[in-house]
Amino acid sequence: MTNIPETGRTSRITIRLVVIQILVFSLLLTLGGRLWFLQIRQGDEFAAEAAGNHVQQAVQPAVRGSILDARGVPIADNETRLVVSADRTELSRLPDDGERVLADLAELLDIPVEDVTHQVRLCDAETPQPCWNGSPYQPIPITDEATTQQALQIRERAEDFPGISAELTAVRRYPSPDGANTAQVLGYLSPVTDEEVEQTEETDAPLLRSDQIGRSGLERSYDSYLRGDAGVTRYEVDKFGRVLGESESEEAEAGSNLVTSIDTRVQAVVESELIGAMEAARATHDPISGRNFEADAGSAVVLENDTGRVVAMASAPDYDPNVWVGGIATDDYAALTDEDANDPLLNRAIQGQGPPGSTFKVVTSTAAVNAGFDFDGGYNCPSSYEVGGQVFRNFESQAYGSITLGDALRVSCNTVFYGIAHREWRADGGIDPKENPDDWLFRTAHDFGLGEQTGIDLPNEAPGRIPDRQWKQEYWELNRDNWCEIAETDRDDYEARIARENCTEGMQMRAGDMLNFSIGQGDVLVTPLQLASVYAALGNGGTIYTPQVGRAVISADGREVEEFAPAEAGRLPADDGTVENLRNATASVITSGSADWKFGGWPQNEITLRGKTGTAEASGDQQTTSWLATYTDDYTVVMTINQAGTGSGASGDAVRRIWEAMYGVSGGSVNEDAALLSEPHRDLPVIDETGAIVPQLGDEEDEDRGEGEEGREEGEDEGTQPETQLEEEVAPPFDEEERDEQRREREQRDREARPTMPPPPPPTPERSDEQEERAEREEEGGGNDPPDPGGTEQEGRREPLDE
Amino acid sequence: MSVHTLSLDRHAPRKGTLRRIVARDSVARRVDWILLLAALALSVLGSVLAWSATRNRTEINGGDEQFFLTRQLINLAVGIALAVGVMWLGHQRLRAAVPLFFAFSMAAMLLVFTPLGTTINGQRAWLSVGGYTLQPGEFAKVAVILGMALILAAQVDAGDRGYPGSRAVLQALALAGAPLAVVVIDDLGMAMVISMIVLGILLASGAAIGWSIGLILAGVGAAVLVWALGLLDDYQIDRFAAFADPSRDPAGVGYNTNQARIAIGSGGLDGKGLFQGTQTTGQFVPEQHTDFIFTVAGEELGFIGAGGIIALIGVVLWRALRIARGAPDLYSTIIAAGIVSWFAFQCFENIGMALGIMPVAGVPLPFLSYGGTAMFAVWIAIGLLQSVRMKRPLSA
């Protein structure tokens, strides 16, 4: 048909066809490459996306494990409540974004509309609390206190309440057994965030959108034990949500129960005594500042000496942990975060740190012995001590002549420790330190475990601080620019003079710094728990334990028990003789020393009580912080109250009553039957055959307890009666009868009014570094001041030392 | 002398049927079996994939899981019959019928705008005849190829000149412009395919290179003009650009491309297995048995299966290009090259959009996408290729 010869193909056309061929195969190669990229390179990501695409999960939340006290009494458990929640996805489909529905709902539930709308809005950078921090795809709880009536209405009028559901749900409950609040130790829960879900996706314990997780306290430390595994049923669905295929289903596995070493009876006493002591202090006049004590915060710890277990831990101000349950309400949150509330979320026993005052002298004494000083040697206790033109005074300029270290502890003589500190400072080269200074004081303090976290099983513990040479240097480097800037101004006020000095010499360890440190003032910081752990070590003969609140984790079926053995953190840096000397000296503090006026009549022969008082200077116009550390062979009790005066004055009565309750002491004699905890719990609570943990309240015990409880509950009056008498017996001879009388009356009134928890206080996220920061700030003002000539130690300001 | 003649001499006497079939000059020996088998494999595979994609879609399969499989196999049978018909007639003999065929195609395309036309997915590109829907545009592609080949090759094949002159090129462009004008408004995919066919044919015809370059520049210029004059609404631009950035049209095209990408990507190396694709079973990818059929292969057959499809397409194009190179005259060359351009671009566009590297346009994947007209058209093209092949000199 064609007359073109077969060779008629011209070269131009052949070339063009080759070009087309190259183009065509380039396109195919492109496709192949892209296919490889999507399927091989990114295949896993897409596989995950595809998996998420077609699977719908129905989540059966796991019941969260309970937190129990040492006897098995629940301090955190669950109850079933009617929870009303809103589904944002469904609401957003409504023409008005569900505004009308939410308004109707608010009316039905009888809560302000704004509260509801605030609760369902999503948190972002600009949205203030309250807002929803969890997944937007998860129903948002509006209230967990719906009545059956309200729930029925919501269900029956489903067409009026699209996106709203009312379901029976297990919610957390903090039942406060025996009236023990334990708020900060327990912590609280809040919904997971999207980020947390993402972060845990690849782990063994992925979080579900509906999960709540512990945010602080035990709820956080033991979250992975308590949470359990939610049951998930996965349905394969198509694009329209229709269920396609077989579902895979996992049963929910309840979380394990946590048995703690807390004894709620003791905890309740400690809490009420702490609050009582604070209220008493507020009713007491402070002659130094000329106003009543503020007593704005305080904390108390009870440890078992032989294990480091925490029997009680209280922090004031506190709050009702139940406010967090089911999402915190707007006004509750406002109350918690209010500035006047003074951080109730903070667990001051582990997160509050301050100078320990004279309670630190057991450390200094040990350092002195280690440095070669004889414990029983004679040390001059003049009324004041002069260094470089500065005069460091004893309290009320008392002088005791030549005394032993033991006596110096007993009467809390500052000048003895000044002298030792000064000699050590000079031996280390003074202002121009030698190459490797011995630094016996700093080294010993570190060996006591101070300046670092104790490692307790609670989150965000503050480390305290030992202001050694390294810290001085670092602190100076941190603040030098600031100081030097002020120094260059023309100002000639106090702050500028200090800044000028610090700008050039702030890194130097000066004699004054050393002297302050020797009596626990100035830059040294400890937490109440650290101090308790030091005294507990003296109580057990020298072993420092890592404090623990958790004792054991018991699986929901009771089959698996994981017990946490006491963990030794180290030994006191003191030989047995020194420990014995310190024990004797601290015993004399109770019998004839700075605390004797509060412990008169204590059955010391049966229960040897030892202790040390402390009064720490605070900066600015703040009143002094009171410290009282006491211990027997079995337990240690430490209480501290901010702006409350002296250790014995502010906490003496309260601490004594704690000891009385624990050992059953009444009227100077010991009644074993009335004792709450004359010896530490040795065994875990009994687990019955169903796996339930039986609170250890046997028949007999029950009776005992009944009586005891009566005594404790109705009254505090019944309880206070004998105490009041006691107090009279030991009333310090110098106290004006009248004022004392008034105070007792007030105390009693306050205690009677106390059964309800103190008003929920304020917020501030519990961040120990914030505290730290504040401490730093304060110090910048006054921390490097030369010691206040007014006397660094005000121990026994009003309470004379009864020799 | 050609081998052709020799063989004739040698076997001049009557032969048995088997002998006739295996004889060197027999149809069976002249057909390009590799091309045929590759096309057949792709078509059967496409039917199975369409089956997988529609198994659960009772709303369109009327409760018969294999409805689309059966239908597509019937379409394939019809397509093969058409191909055999074309082979029997031969592309040279069809030369005379080209103007008529072209006229019919154009008429059918215009009929779409009468009440006989049906709108599917926003595109008025279907004719509804007695319960069947036809897409005249598919035949128009064949018509354009044949028409342009006829015009461009006329003088050259007559030996009057070496390459098509300007006059022939202009005539050919005018011819191609007719269907283009009909579809350019609302069938971007078809417009692009026809443009690429025209470009390929101009290249292969040996016409001055300036024409090809001019055409490309004209295309770019038109796009810029449309953009600059703001002839497109924002949503149209978003739809167009959504392939690269699904968030620009998250509910529409963006959603589609995203789901398509998830389907393909999640297939991995060896796929989830036929009928096991969760994206497919869950109907997350729209138009999955037609325009997005490749995603079924990607998800259920994985890189091995989907890559295999691309390889098979490569085989088809390789054979077609071989046929173009071996064609005895320009008319045949242009037909083969036009078909190559058509297949190549349509495959690239279709798979490219499933892979998210090309904008989404309603273009079927040759052989694989479900659809009768498209199947008929590609098999007619296979028939034409075979016809060209059978006419080539045996020595080639």
TrEMBL record, chain A:
InterPro entries: Beta-lactam/transpept, Beta-lactam/transpept-like, PBP_dimer, PBP_dimer_sf, PCN-bd_Tpept, Penicillin-binding_protein_2. GO terms for biological process: cell wall organization; peptidoglycan biosynthetic process; proteolysis; regulation of cell shape. It is a single-pass membrane protein. Its main location: membrane. Residues 60-247 form the Penicillin-binding protein dimerisation domain. It is found in: Cell membrane; Membrane. Residues 698-739, 769-782 have a biased composition (Acidic residues). GO terms for cellular component: plasma membrane. Keywords: Cell inner membrane, Cell membrane, Cell shape, Cell wall biogenesis/degradation, Hydrolase, Membrane, Peptidoglycan synthesis, Protease, Transmembrane, Transmembrane helix. GO terms for molecular function: penicillin binding; peptidoglycan L,D-transpeptidase activity; serine-type D-Ala-D-Ala carboxypeptidase activity. Residues 681-803 are annotated as: Disordered. Residues 756-765 have a biased composition (Pro residues). Residues 298-658 form the Penicillin-binding protein transpeptidase domain. Residues 740-754, 794-803 have a biased composition (Basic and acidic residues). The chain crosses the membrane at residues 17-37. Belongs to the transpeptidase family. PANTHER family: PEPTIDOGLYCAN D,D-TRANSPEPTIDASE, PEPTIDOGLYCAN D,D-TRANSPEPTIDASE MRDA. This is Penicillin-binding protein 2. It comes from Streptomyces radicis.
From TrEMBL, chain B:
GO terms for molecular function: lipid-linked peptidoglycan transporter activity; peptidoglycan glycosyltransferase activity. InterPro entries: Cell_cycle_FtsW-rel_CS (IPR018365), FtsW/RodA (IPR001182). Its main location: membrane. One of its GO terms (cellular component) is cell division site. The chain crosses the membrane at residues 33-52, 73-90, 96-118, 139-156, 168-185, 197-230, 301-321, 333-361, 367-385. It is found in: Membrane. It comes from the Bacteria. Pathway: Cell wall biogenesis; peptidoglycan biosynthesis. It is an enzyme of class 2 (transferase). It is a multi-pass membrane protein. Keywords: Cell shape, Membrane, Transmembrane, Transmembrane helix. It holds the Pfam family FTSW_RODA_SPOVE. Its EC number is 2.4.99.28. This is peptidoglycan glycosyltransferase.
